[in-house]
Amino acid sequence: MGTPPTGNALTGPAQIRKLVTLAETTHAEMGQPVDPPVRKAVAGAVIANPFAGRYVQDLALLIDIGAQMGALLAHEAMTLLQAAPDQIQSYGKAALVGEEGELEHAAALLHPALGAPLRAAIGGGAALVPSSKAMGGPGDIVDVPLGHTNAAYVRSHFDGIRLRIADAPRPKELVIAVALATTGRPLPRVGGLTHANATATDGLR
Question: What is the C-alpha to C-alpha distance for residues 31 and 3, in angstroms, rounded to an integer?
Fold first, then answer.
């Protein structure tokens, strides 16, 4: 399983209302066996938006919260998968902003500081972490894209997973999610660079 985040991530700057996790394992598709099974997990946190309802120029607090969430949610997803760091082949991140926030709040969570603790939790990752951000309300879907951890052009790993939380985000909240997978899509057959041939030096190639 993943290495627990340093310290108690629940005592960081984020005001967490709840954590929600979802895992799926696909064993067959179109009557064909999927071997190895496709295993994906997503971990989401419902957190207070400290800047809801007002314009703030300095979003450093949300950037710090993003770092906290990267460590915490990666650990939650890896625990759910029962996976070791070297078993993770794909990752992704997403945020959904309640109506009293703005899209830039999602960007502050996801981009400047979340990636480093996420990569630390899985033992590396040379490729950019795919991301999505949107405005929404309770019960709206959080679409988390997935891509290969070391080479973004591994087509078999262009994928995603969805998370829906019935009571989130409320207007002054944000939902932030991290997704991990141990393989690519079921039965990939569109060609291109493969997981077996990709290396950390491929990065975005």
Answer: 37
